[in-house]
Amino acid sequence: MVSTAVIAFLALVTRFSGLTEPDAQGTPVFDEKHYVPQAWDMVRSWENLFIGGIESNPAYGLVVHPPLGKQLLAFGEMAFGYSPLGWRFMVAIFGCLTVLATMELARRLSHSWQVALFAGIMAVCDGVLLVSAKFGMLDIFQVFFVVCAALFLADDHEQVRHRMHAAYLDGQLGSSAFGPRVGYRWWRFAAGVMLGLSLSVKWSGLYYIVFFGLMSVFMDLALRRRYGVRRYVSGTLVRDTVPALASLVLVPALLYLWSWRAWFASETSVYRHSATDGTIESGSLLNILPDPLASWMYYHVSVLEFHSELTSSGGHSHPWDSKPWSWLAATRPILYYSSTDIQCGDTTCRSMIYLFGTPVIWWLTVPVVLWGVWRLIVRRDRRFVIPVVAFAAGFLPWLAAFDRQMYFFYATALVPFTIVLLALALGMLAGKGRVVERLRPVAPVALRSGTVAVICYLALVVAMFAYFAPILYGIVVPDSYYNQLMWLPSWT
């Protein structure tokens, strides 16, 4: 469609503009310094096309994330070398794809290209999705896979509903107390693949496996109940639960294991020989496993200890640390790049890049999520199941670990689902209300007040994106202008 092509073009322009400019004298900036060298390690050790290379990067200590994200960064470095373009090319591509996936999810849930267009405009103009797609880090990869998993589960639910309805029309619902078999569900399998890829980028993908797996089963139960299956609970357990576990748990687990293939194939991987070099204590239960598997599990235990000890109460602190409740209004962004005291005429200027959420989007997070919960529970609007559950999967688990040192980029996966909820709200508002008589002489068609409100909101999103562009792209601006952008003390 034309709207999709327009949004894709805008995503490409916004993500690739100035992609190579922020650097530290040709070297990575911020947390790029961890992942970019690890990806380059993979490039240099990439001998077998299908196995890939390994990351060692001993200068920065233990490698604490699964390999897939660095493998994806490595593709860009293979093509463009160890340069800003090389280590940012793949994230920019995935950033564009995330915009389109968010747009498609909104279209699938609403069956409206206008609602999809609303979501696309907001996704293009959100600062978090933009900046995440301009630095060689891992978050945008995981976000893309999570949004695709949600999209494929929406497709799966729609397909199963059609199959159930066809069985209802054919009179097959009563042939078994458990209800009909609905056939193999390739969309659910595809969702499992996306969840496995998400887990293979960061362990937080596990949250989505749990939430999406339960959501899929309960949506199946609701369908069987809606179509009058006599034993709908037992029918869900018998017909749907085991296949769901296979697609949404077993498939991700196997893909996660597959992502470590280079680690198993190499003799010099981190902790590769822990089972034989005395690193594992003699009394450990890991010793009952085969040596490669014991070493791999020891690696995982070490990473888990690293993450569990990175707590505020344990003395770990960071100037840009933020807690989950602050993510809901984007009150604590992260400074990715800074160059100050730049002389420009009679004044001083600076170039700054923040991971910064467009306020007119992020400040509506709490009300739109609560509205989505209300639509789901009170009005029983099934369109809101997936975005509400997906938002919960990306937010609630972090509350349980609030003492851990956290950063705003953990919230990147929240914004696509906030945008989908906002787009659904705008879709319900458009076309409502009275005709605005004052606009008749200048408008090509009669515009109702709801449509005018939608246009004004989207215009505000675009305007605010342009207003804050200097701290999203690192544009050199006078200190006075920068100070005008810092609306809240917590932003500095």
From TrEMBL:
Pathway listed: Protein modification; protein glycosylation
Membrane topology reported for the UniProt record: Multi-pass membrane protein
TM region(s), chain numbering: 85-106, 113-131, 137-154, 244-263, 360-377, 384-401, 407-431, 452-476
InterPro entries: ArnT-like_N (IPR003342), PMT-like (IPR027005), PMT_4TMC (IPR032421)
Cellular localisation: Cell membrane; Endomembrane system
Primary location class: membrane
Residues covered by the ArnT-like N-terminal domain: 85-257
Record-level GO cellular component terms: endomembrane system; plasma membrane
Pfam families found in the cross-reference section: PMT, PMT_4TMC
Domain Protein O-mannosyl-transferase C-terminal four TM, first and last residues per copy: 294-491
Function: Protein O-mannosyltransferase that catalyzes the transfer of a single mannose residue from a polyprenol phospho-mannosyl lipidic donor to the hydroxyl group of selected serine and threonine residues in acceptor proteins.
Entry's family note: Belongs to the glycosyltransferase 39 family.
Name under which the protein is recorded: Polyprenol-phosphate-mannose--protein mannosyltransferase
